Amino acid sequence: MRTLLLLSLLLVSTPFFAQSDDEKQIRAIYDQALTNGKAYDWLNHLSNQIGGRLSGSVQAQQAVDYTKGQLDSLGLDKVWLQPVMVPKWVRGTPEFAYIETKPGLTTNVPICALGGSVATPDRGIKANIVEVKGIEDLKKLGREKIEGKIVFYNRPMDATKISTFASYSGCVDQRYSGAAEAGKYGAAGVIVRSMTLRLDDYPHTGSMSYGDTPVSERVPAAAISTKGAELLSTTLTLNPDIKFYFKQNCKQFEDVESYNVIGEITGSTYPNEVMVVGGHLDSWDLGDGSHDDGAGCVQSMDVLRLLKETGYRPKRTLRVILFMNEENGLRGGNKYAEVAQQKNEKHIFALESDSGGFTPRGFSFDCSEENLKQVQSWKSLFEPYLIHMFVKGYSGADIGPLKSEDLVLAGLRPDSQRYFDHHHAENDTFEHVNKRELELGAATMASLVYLIDKYGTITSARIKG
Questions:
Q1: 337-366 pLDDT, tens per residue?
Q2: Rounded Cα gap, residues 69 and 321, in angstroms
Q3: Strand order, beta sheet including 125-132
Q4: Which pTM does this prediction carry?
Q5: How far apart are CA 465 and CA 461, in angstroms?
Q6: Are the C-beta atoms of 170 and 161 separated by less than 8 Å?
Q7: Mean pLDDT, the chain, as a whole number?
Q8: Residues 79, 263: contact at Cβ < 8 Å?
């Protein structure tokens, strides 16, 4: 017992190992985020005082004004608005739908128009239903079995995939292109099963495209909740002659001017090397866009604040960008990349947070194998914070247009299991964001930015050499 006591005293009085400067800086970042984080308060205002921020809306402009003001208050070297023309689509009055099993016998089901859809006729559409599991089924059925009917896309997300983003990508084509393809066979309209693994009554909206279909030939498209989809499919199996009715009065207007919101800390040593961190400020209009992507915006804002508060001055120019119009056009991301190219700016790193404000698990990187090995060498610095995933993969939609051979693109990867419970739905609201998880995400992002700034990338180091 005495030996154990002496050993304990020795361990306490004599440092077992000296913390590296990197460990100390990262610890300081996490401590600051978890005790004095600002992301949650910023998100509270965006969500509860402004709400859903669909491109071209009054709320989107309010979000631009608010976030610019908050960035101004941080004492950055520069804050500005970058003009960008964005689409303006308006949902209109709430949509309405029902299943009719026989004349006068109906059951209401929850639907919502897909973003960019045309309206139904004033009196709505009522027609027989043809159920398919995907776009490929349309060709098998042919015009004879589709014309004049409502096509019901009912392929669910694959529950066997651990990454719910892989499940999403496996069936989102029916939402995005389903109306354009069904219209080619004379369909009267399209109903799409919501992109979520949860069985609930929330329909999930999202972007869609008619491609080059003339306006006069476009058919209305709506999402139906997963419970509604199950009911519709079962009822259709029992009675193939049922009818479906839906009404929506959404409208597409001319493009309007909006803005990317940008804040910058100018690099102290390599000001011409630019690092970017960001999320998209716009959201869909059904909830308040807390997870998609208010969380990513406020985390990105807090990255710059965390570095300032811990006394770290970036050697390279660090920008936070709150992109406009990711949801239904990607105009903000494309505009930023266009202007950067015109100015011949040298971007070495870009990090995006657009996967919700849940517990961070790590990052995925779109970069060369050399740069991937470099960032993987820092993995042990993150393990005390339970960050373990440093893999090659997708980064983010808004930073994607910046892609080049020399650039390192990265995406924050939180735990994905609950993300699609809320994605593009009415329940994407502030109360579903956990304060500590949100702050951990901001600290994780700031730590990676710190390391990239301190050591550069393999490509930037080679150029200097």
A1: 999 999 999 999 999 999 999 999 999 999
A2: 14
A3: 105-108, 96-102, 243-247, 125-132, 150-153, 189-193, 221-224, 111-113
A4: 0.94
A5: 6
A6: yes
A7: 95
A8: yes
